Amino acid sequence: SPHHSPSTSARSNPPTFSMALSVEKTASGREYKVKDLSQADFGRLELELAEVEMPGLMACRAEFGPSQPFKGARISGSLHMTIQTAVLIETLTALGAEVRWCSCNIFSTQDHAAAAIARDSAAVFAWKGETLEEYWWCTERCLDWGAGGGPDLIVDDGGDATLLIHEGVKAEEEFERSGKVPDPASTDNPEFKIVLTIIRDGLKTDARKYRKMKERLVGVSEETTTGVKRLYQMQESGTLLFPAINVNDSVTKSKFDNLYGCRHSLPDGLMRATDVMIAGKVAVVCGYGDVGKGCAAALKQAGARVIVTEIDPICALQALMEGIQILTLEDVVSDADIFVTTTGNKDIIMVDHMRKMKNNAIVCNIGHFDNEIDMNGLETYPGVKRITIKPQTDRWVFPETNTGIIVLAEGRLMNLGCATGHPSFVMSCSFTNQVIAQLELWKEKATGKYEKKVYVLPKHLDEKVAALHLGKLGARLTKLTKAQSEYISIPVEGPYKPAAYRY
Amino acid sequence: SPHHSPSTSARSNPPTFSMALSVEKTASGREYKVKDLSQADFGRLELELAEVEMPGLMACRAEFGPSQPFKGARISGSLHMTIQTAVLIETLTALGAEVRWCSCNIFSTQDHAAAAIARDSAAVFAWKGETLEEYWWCTERCLDWGAGGGPDLIVDDGGDATLLIHEGVKAEEEFERSGKVPDPASTDNPEFKIVLTIIRDGLKTDARKYRKMKERLVGVSEETTTGVKRLYQMQESGTLLFPAINVNDSVTKSKFDNLYGCRHSLPDGLMRATDVMIAGKVAVVCGYGDVGKGCAAALKQAGARVIVTEIDPICALQALMEGIQILTLEDVVSDADIFVTTTGNKDIIMVDHMRKMKNNAIVCNIGHFDNEIDMNGLETYPGVKRITIKPQTDRWVFPETNTGIIVLAEGRLMNLGCATGHPSFVMSCSFTNQVIAQLELWKEKATGKYEKKVYVLPKHLDEKVAALHLGKLGARLTKLTKAQSEYISIPVEGPYKPAAYRY
Amino acid sequence: SPHHSPSTSARSNPPTFSMALSVEKTASGREYKVKDLSQADFGRLELELAEVEMPGLMACRAEFGPSQPFKGARISGSLHMTIQTAVLIETLTALGAEVRWCSCNIFSTQDHAAAAIARDSAAVFAWKGETLEEYWWCTERCLDWGAGGGPDLIVDDGGDATLLIHEGVKAEEEFERSGKVPDPASTDNPEFKIVLTIIRDGLKTDARKYRKMKERLVGVSEETTTGVKRLYQMQESGTLLFPAINVNDSVTKSKFDNLYGCRHSLPDGLMRATDVMIAGKVAVVCGYGDVGKGCAAALKQAGARVIVTEIDPICALQALMEGIQILTLEDVVSDADIFVTTTGNKDIIMVDHMRKMKNNAIVCNIGHFDNEIDMNGLETYPGVKRITIKPQTDRWVFPETNTGIIVLAEGRLMNLGCATGHPSFVMSCSFTNQVIAQLELWKEKATGKYEKKVYVLPKHLDEKVAALHLGKLGARLTKLTKAQSEYISIPVEGPYKPAAYRY
Amino acid sequence: SPHHSPSTSARSNPPTFSMALSVEKTASGREYKVKDLSQADFGRLELELAEVEMPGLMACRAEFGPSQPFKGARISGSLHMTIQTAVLIETLTALGAEVRWCSCNIFSTQDHAAAAIARDSAAVFAWKGETLEEYWWCTERCLDWGAGGGPDLIVDDGGDATLLIHEGVKAEEEFERSGKVPDPASTDNPEFKIVLTIIRDGLKTDARKYRKMKERLVGVSEETTTGVKRLYQMQESGTLLFPAINVNDSVTKSKFDNLYGCRHSLPDGLMRATDVMIAGKVAVVCGYGDVGKGCAAALKQAGARVIVTEIDPICALQALMEGIQILTLEDVVSDADIFVTTTGNKDIIMVDHMRKMKNNAIVCNIGHFDNEIDMNGLETYPGVKRITIKPQTDRWVFPETNTGIIVLAEGRLMNLGCATGHPSFVMSCSFTNQVIAQLELWKEKATGKYEKKVYVLPKHLDEKVAALHLGKLGARLTKLTKAQSEYISIPVEGPYKPAAYRY
């Protein structure tokens, strides 16, 4: 599974393992597995605060709640189990859905959010600090709705839920064809070993498990760049098994969540993890896409001198226009104080870079997968010493120099690992797109409107998401007059821009 | 011609006129009409400075000059006759073209630039402060290559050259059909009166003049949003007469020229026209597209408190995320000190707004056409008094209050009317796209690759334009490794982004 | 004691109390009282990180450590017991001092820092979340060096240690004069009740206790604006009992710690306490001194629309020049989302303001004392309901509207209550001034150089503090040539500016 | 006169000269010498615009005009003869003064402003592009009120008027003592040769001319850092001949004019002189005082990458906290695109630096005197070629490399030489201080309040200046309550800060 390799890391995992986890049940019989259900009250309080900051989701409840459009729909979500996600989940349930949920990152769960949802609203399998085995166990639990099979709809973030089904179906077909069961030993990739183990074990109990899921599935809505990239690859290779809506490329997602969300959460993560003064420091941001732009802006505004590395000359020129220097990592590796990867690519900061860094240079990743930083190279570096300052903040000391670097969240999403991710308001934009995408898939489930392809939401829905968030900020929009509307050939009610408009 | 109405304004023109302008000739026999040929030396000096700032154009000369790809091509350009455009013209001639040029705005010519080009390189018909009759006379001169007919290629900005040919063809066909000649009296639009007069007079000497032009024409490359909008409207209505390349929507044009160009030139125009302190002022920017974003950024950075008006909720939400208030013009008309229109729409600031403004509020437009500000309403306001402080800076005093407002460049493009437009470096990005578009049209003239439609340049050429501008700024790009390239399924040499990527 | 009233708050305290706290001892016999000594290892790890970020303090250790200038000196400190302060303490001990310490704010202690210091270096009496009785007990413990009396030197922050001695001496003199003991019932001020109780109890055991302290005391160095104000008031009224060095007004303190420290720690506190998205919000900063400037800059850069309230027209004009609106609190109380007090004055945000705020408006204080926000008015508001979201984050719901506001750190210093205060680097500037001030007082203890007055450090020491922090940031200073030095009449080695220079 | 050497430059002047300039007279008999009196109407229009932007001066007219406090006072001013200064002059005359004026820089006069004042209000001797002989002739004319002697008051900027009197008195005393007349040949400094010539010629007609001036003089108010430095040097050496008020160090001058004025006028000058795109460029600012801070902020906001050179570690650390790199000029001389000197020192950019710069690097000075850039070294560099692009914009080409640099305003104040200096609003702050200082000197002329020393205005007047500028910007100040006032021991009406407060 080449497209899976990115998220692979067996670092903290033993070579063999067993799935000895047990599902718990609420008084009402709903399944869950969370860290501490007693945190539910605290989660509920923060959930209530978040609701005030998430006008898009609350507007969905007001508009669609009465008609219960998700009545009868089973939704499985694999997406950071945070307070904001909790408001999304309860929006889905308020619209009639039944929901099962897991996190899409081993460090991103907020345990009080998980507790509140598990107690009050949906089946949750998620806690902060899962092992990779636990992570995939949670994913599998999330997708498994019991004897009746799988979900009707998936909310995915990074594509792991989608991947498990695709890999499961592939294995089942192979098994049917050749009797061959998946062999975890067939791969060097330790995370993929786990996936194969789960599928193999699944095969033993039901050789059509994932195919049944696929057959039931109406579609998936995918949250993030990385997951979207996987979907387009599958679309191109003709292996995509169900329709997909690319939520990431809604303007109100990628140009808000990725940009302004990271502008908020990068310094938040840095501060919570290290308390380091950003002003005066030299900070290297690898990549100047939306995420990189947000990170660079935040660091610059906090008083750092920012240097960007880029492969794309257009993005590089954008950085230059903002006064940001474009260099290669090699040029600056010994001079910088803070390194942030945002590329969506792999092998960005290698152990050989890390060896050359200043003492206590901070190295972190805010891209979806954890392979931007060569954690494997670091962990296996001869004589390297790991000193855990606190969870998700480790100092790694090299034997030659006796100097160290500080790695956040073990190379995973530092804003979710070290802080609380993106704030509610911007997630409300993203998640309102999710709700709209799920509604659209569900409404059209029988019409054939959506084929096994990747779709983006139409412009007018994108604009609607934005409009739902203006009132909270006291904005007053101007209305086109009829004459103006005719003059520029744009309807008074929009959409206001051509599809290719870049914002 | 409804799509033409935007640029119409007969304000400073008498109802009747005659084309008594005479073409002059250089020693070598090349035609021209400029203000003062003796400014050619000064123009040449500034041209030489600009060349150092326009690495994209100079790279085109180096790469393509030797093979003379434009050998035999006639290029007519209607685009602000500035120093930067002069470097574009001499790039086209360096690649083998013969060139005729006019400006696309009555105030935008830099007379020393026109003089240098007229003397040294191409036929120029342009001066700062044309009347509208003069303007259209220049346009017609620019398109008329003598007996042999018209140009092979057009570089257009706003679409007036394209419009003249389309209207001419329409009139000739009508004349052939019905014997009817265009009647300037048939329209209330004073500028369109002039267009019809020119076409009528042309008909008298050659009833196939514009059709011959059309037949020869290989295509047009269009520079700006407004012209592009016209082209798409013609494409939709099936009336487009030749292929068009939309240069405006190259990323390296619209996300650079429109954004960073205006960020530079808006304060420049304000300062040269009024010397007003921007810090501390309340500035209203109407529209938050690329141009509006550049203007708002410039004003904010200069210490103004910026308020934006928008119809589009997405752009409005972007402004809010930058701490910019979104209100309607009515909300703030009495409180603000500076008003800038950037919408591409009409009727943005009406005389009724202007009456309510603070004494000496500054009102200006940086959109392509001059109908964003209700100049007609202002000029015909009973008892209004116009006091010209200096050219392109007028104070208009209302009789009721005896307070005045300051209008820049008579409501036309203030950055070109009051300052020198966009700086060379960013124009090098735009104009390198123009050169590439012209090369492409010319290369494919016989292949049928381009139909009578509107095209954008492919991503890899857009990236090439950016790449040509990095060295000047000392940037060092990172190279993808082969493994990374495979992992993200992007060629090592690009293009690096999907077509819909928003930057 | 009118100058004490600011810090008064009996809110969470019963009217009567007893000092039933017990001192603990390390194996080596050093006294302490901290929350959890087992956190010492964690504290040590963070201390080691902080050392790398505090080049000024480390330079002091390198320069002065060998000569042990504090040999024989007893230093008592009343200053937020954080990781950064721990590095200060260990710098003092590295220079030969014996140290006792307490925090100057009930919420500002970092328990792991306190633990590390208590275990390894000095006598500490501090924990996060002290009651006011505990707070003053700690202060008294910090000042009491046993039979031998008090400290030789005090490091004070806000002036509570200084106040206790002054009040103690006053009471002893009154007692000697009239036999009258301090009567806690004589004051309405609940915190001052506690102070009087402590002094009264002290009188019972030693009627010269505070006078002996005063006699021994060489001087105090004071950290912050508020404490400095108290000292100048005492200087003016002739009641100051020992020399004082005003560290706050070193440029490298007030223009760095107050400004850049708050620019860092205000958003940090907001994010940790509420996770609220700052972008798009309306934020009101009360006061535009150094602290207010830092707060406003941080909020603006994070994308908020900032409004400042000011009494001082000069500071107001500075804000306007940065595009920040100046209004009164009344003008904006119903529209804003975030309120921050930075004034050093009292009664800034009253309960009557809070009642009119938007639901979930955030109200916090970053000024030294907790009387900027009318917590008393809030707590005693009829029917008000307090919901503790988490420690230091409370939602207060008004009965009329059933809407609530969110108050951080109970109105106390939110950056220390909700986050970890200022980062190490900027504290290194402040604390290097402290070390230098303490060295200066101690060196001159017998020379009479310092009278019972308030002094600032000379410019060249201020510049030295800055210079010690440049290397860490990779800066390379320019050197004056001899000719330049003569031309501007400034020594090559500085000081480079006249005393009144404002930076 | 060692302290004079800074402003010396004989570059464009012949070694010998004669004062063959003739004074002209208005119909009313007032003397003047300006470039073109017919520009008076244009000047008047811009003056009227400026009045709206200068609320402080207009408030002075309203408050003090009726009582004519300057009745009988002769004021001589040596200060850039711009539109803003014209409003100052007419404020002085509106308060009853008679005024004579010259510019304090050979390039800084705006000829239309000079014309309007010469025609309507005061005796003016100033034009843009004076030779140094003309410059000193103008200064002498400005000080010479005819038979009755000199002025009662001086408004000085840089101290040249003050210097002429001091040098004159010195020469007269020497002549009285020894019969020795000043010998222009005694100095190598070409500008000082001119000064000595003027004084020598004066001696011939009246051997007590400058002493009579001195005796009449009530005092001087000095505008700028450089002039103030001279005054303090004279105060220290006991040679100051009359009282002086240091206007520069009013907060509302140095922290506004120097900072926000330059933030406005530096990019303005760069754009008008070169049209260069600032975004993406590397800009070096020499010096990070108030002027340097303003310049660096402007360049950074325009998208340049800014590097600062500093001698002062405190200012350097301030730059670092804003993300600005601190290097030496040598470190960056070959990499930067724009160089700005702001130091008030000499020999900052030497010809040896200039030789190493990139082709078309821009070199300019915004400090008061023209000796920051080694113009002499440049002009005398063997084989160097000067190409004047336009007035005040020269390209200097070095023979070895055939590459050139662009020098603005011949190394003099580029914002006044290439643009129009600081905008009206911020000059209103500065000049309101001037009016208040002049009023104060005049009011106390007979009281002995002011000795032959340098004074700053008291804080409450500084605050008043600020207050006069708030209304124009729509600000609403908060009022202290009586309780608050007592609590912080600050009067309700201010002053609000201690004298040493740094803002």
UniProtKB/TrEMBL annotation, chains A, B, C, D:
Residues 258-421 form the S-adenosyl-L-homocysteine hydrolase NAD binding domain. Signal peptide: none annotated. It catalyses: S-adenosyl-L-homocysteine + H2O = L-homocysteine + adenosine. GO terms for cellular component: cytosol. Its EC number is 3.13.2.1. InterPro entries: Adenosylhomocyst_ase-like_sf, Adenosylhomocysteinase-like, Ado_hCys_hydrolase_NAD-bd, NAD(P)-bd_dom_sf, S-Ado-L-homoCys_hydrolase_CS. Binds 1 NAD(+) per subunit. GO terms for biological process: one-carbon metabolic process; S-adenosylmethionine cycle. CDD domains: SAHH. Pathway: Amino-acid biosynthesis; L-homocysteine biosynthesis; L-homocysteine from S-adenosyl-L-homocysteine: step 1/1. The keyword Zinc does not apply. It comes from the Eukaryota. It is an enzyme of class 3 (hydrolase). Substrate binds at T82, D157, E223, K253, D257. Keywords: Hydrolase, NAD, One-carbon metabolism. HAMAP family: AdoHcyase. NCBIfam families: ahcY, PRK05476.2-3. Belongs to the adenosylhomocysteinase family. This is Adenosylhomocysteinase. It comes from Aegilops tauschii subsp. strangulata (Goatgrass).
